[in-house]
Design goal:
Oligomer: single chain
Structural class: mainly alpha
Radius of gyration: 22 Å
Strand content: under 5%
Length: 253
């Protein structure tokens, strides 16, 4: 039995499915309590139904990006584990990044089912779980105090209000992530054997360019054309465009 067959075994589905089912029940429980609490304080039932429907509608298409993440990781980690990670508390950019880093630390040549081992999967799964739990612990201990700081507007240079530390920290984090990825792609491209060889790693750079252009289009539509609703589809749309570009360019060249 191959490692991928073991990762897709009924036992793995049972373990991961049980956890996901429990979390789903918790969500239903708190949703019902929130509905009862809304009625208890006199909220309009029609408006509450409208909020539920709109929230459910706008949650479907953005989740396409999460589905793509499950599909991308399933080829090397099996389906149950990525399904669990991205269904409960994981984030798409986090899971893929940590999985890649853990694979390299375990001595594997990237996330590849051909080279995956039981020890490699254990390292990847353990690191993905340990790194994500600190957000929960920090929220329990410090979230109340931190939220007060975020909700307090700070005067900007022009006399208005700025986003404060929260906005700056999130912006810095994403700039760092993007810079790290693009820097690694550029390094592999420069050290590669040729412009159109896979060793030259031109394909990731092309995917970055296509995905960035599509994301810029979504931002332009949201900010310049007052189509704020497209922001819900920006991540999924840019991912799909990037993956499609990778398939097309790899087939052509």
């Amino acid at each position: 039995m191959t490692i991928l067959s073991q990762l897709n075994s009924p036992v793995m589905y049972l373990i991961c499915g049980t956890i996901i089912g429990f979390v789903a029940l918790v969500c239903v429980f708190f949703a019902l309590r929130a509905w009862k609490a809304g009625l208890a304080i006199g909220m309009d039932k029609t408006k509450m139904k409208r909020a539920v429907v709109s929230s459910a509608t706008f949650a479907v298409l953005p989740s396409v990006g999460i589905l793509l993440g499950v599909i991308a990781l399933a080829g090397s980690l099996g389906t149950p584990w990525p399904w669990l990670r991205l269904s409960v508390i994981g984030a798409l950019h986090y899971e893929t990044q940590v999985a890649e880093a853990a694979a390299e630390a375990a001595g594997l040549p990237g996330l590849n089912a051909t080279h995956m081992t039981a020890q490699g999967f254990t390292t990847i799964a353990l690191l993905m779980s340990l790194c994500i739990m600190w957000g929960m612990l920090m929220s329990i201990l410090f979230n109340k105090k931190y939220l007060k700081k975020l909700q307090t507007p700070k005067a900007g240079k022009s006399g208005g209000t700025g986003g404060g530390f929260g906005d700056l920290a999130m912006t810095a984090m994403f700039i760092g992530l993007v810079s790290a990825y693009i820097g690694s792609y550029l390094g592999k491209f420069v050290s590669g054997s040729g412009l159109f060889s896979f060793g030259g790693s031109w394909l990731p750079l092309a995917v970055v360019a296509v995905s960035g252009a599509v994301m810029a289009l979504f931002v332009w539509l949201a900010e310049k054309k007052n189509a704020a609703w497209v922001e819900n589809f920006s991540i999924a749309g840019s991912m799909i465009a990037g993956m499609a570009a990778a398939v097309v360019l790899n087939g052509l060249l």
